[in-house]
């Protein structure tokens, strides 16, 4: 699946994330931020546009109602970050840690998570369209009541994940691995799985397979 990459200009101004407090409307744009720490903060709605952000730490920070567009995050730590009701479009997370990150009621479009950890993250009641998870760990991740469209899991670990009340039609799980999933039989209709996964899922749903 082809998605739109972040549109980031070649000329960016170096900034520190603390600079957001210098802006009345909490806007960061046309910038590059490297090695900044912004933890245990709550600033309400933040807007980040046209930015390259690398080696930064944002653990336990409240970014709810944020608007993030055309941004590339590299080697950043978003553990336990709150991004409830946020808009995230044309964004890449490369080698990032998003352990326990919260994205409920958010909109994600043209987003790539690459070689990142999203264990115990939550996306409840969110819309994800043109989103790629590539070689990511999503163990115990919650996709409850989500709308998924053109979403791809490529060689991911999905063990213990929850897709309750989330239709998986058109979603390909065949290259990923899991021992258990929370999903209903009706929501699996149209989902692409490997033969081995089909046996796993049937067993999880209480079916007895005989030769």
TrEMBL record:
InterPro entries for this protein: 5peptide_repeat (IPR001646), PA_immunity-related (IPR052949)
Residues spanning the signal sequence: none
Pfam family, one: Pentapeptide
Protein name per its UniProtKB record: Pentapeptide repeat-containing protein
Organism expressing this protein natively: Jeotgalibaca ciconiae
